[in-house]
Give the backbone structure.
Amino acid sequence: MNYQTVLEEIKEEIRPYLNKGTVANYIPALANVAEDDFAMSIIEIDGSEHHIGSYKKPFSIQSISKVFTFTLALDIYGKDLYKRVGHEPSGNPFNSLIQLEYEKGIPRNPFINAGAIVTTDSLVSKYKENTFSTLLEFIKKVSNDENIAFNKEIFKSELESGYRNFALINMMKSFNNIENHTQEVIETYFKQCSIMMNTKQLTKSMLYLANHGVIPNTNSEIITQAQAKRINAVMLTCGHYDASGDFAFHVGLPGKSGVGGGIVAVVPQKMAICVYSPRLNKHGNSLVGTKALELFTTKTRLSIF
Ligand code: DON
């Protein structure tokens, strides 16, 4: 299969959708992007790379960072992590408060905002003031790229406008499910969301999940095979919030989206993929990104189903 040709076909076929959907603006600094931008990368386990569009241009990874924090926390705490955050789909929007109160401050999964905040809190308990630098080093390692940083303007913008996330963390603190100072945890969470990466870097960073927890062509085991299986399962069932079923239905791969417009996806034992297009559908997932991945699995028959 010539994946470069597949990418070129996808770029043509998504063209009519490029002006559909809306860029996230509830974090004001996220709206400062080229709205009709598009990039897509594929990296195979053997190292072959295929890219199209603005694949060298970094964007805010937002909730894709939750895959990295989940990985680190699972590595430290193993199954004990699930005492504080579950692994079931929520069926609710990513920033919903409703379920959290009647489920006594235990978020459904590590990919909704509440679950990611608990996961980050668990990292702060371990790494203290070095939590963000540890996370960034981890991302550089799995991406094999030193040139990754967070965007201060997006970080500040979210700190100034993240009222719902403050509500979530305070509610969880009231249920004793936040161990550290809320301000320290929420700042670390906002920083991780404002990390900037391009589709090439993000694709590379997901390869350990396509390769049983090991960075391909190295002996570097990031997590165990069993944990890699679990992370992929949670990506499949929870990676797109209340549109996770829809993503599985149309695309059929473990995936994780971010409101910055990125989506990563994993083809087990074969490759990782990342697509970027900042206009979102009503669930907060990249509209063209979802479409592009659907075209990809249709053309290549690489859905897991
Ligand atoms: O906390 C937030 O609302 C954002 N920093 C991240 C949300 C997000 O990316 C949801 N993804 N689709």
About this structure: Residues 3-299 form a domain with the Beta-lactamase fold (CATH 3.40.710.10). The radius of gyration is 18 Å. The longest helix spans residues 113-127.
